[in-house]
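call fold(seq) -> tokens
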Amino acid sequence: MLKPFYVDGHPFDGEMLEQMKKNGLSKANVQYRIHYQKWTPEEAVSTKKGEKRPPRAPKPRMPLVNPTNGPVNIQGPCY
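ret:
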């Protein structure tokens, strides 16, 4: 039986531990998913071992704007 633990400040106990056990995950699996693969704690626990994370919607990006000249056009590498 897994004991409660923390990964990057997120507590894992009770219901989360039950989901981990149901999906065949170890503490190391969850730590790797959260710390290195940047999964949310809920995604890390609810996805079975070996399955890929469901795709996320892309985050909106702020347009590049120069306050004095207006939009910035990037045409290529600047050397």
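The chain has a mean pLDDT of 84.
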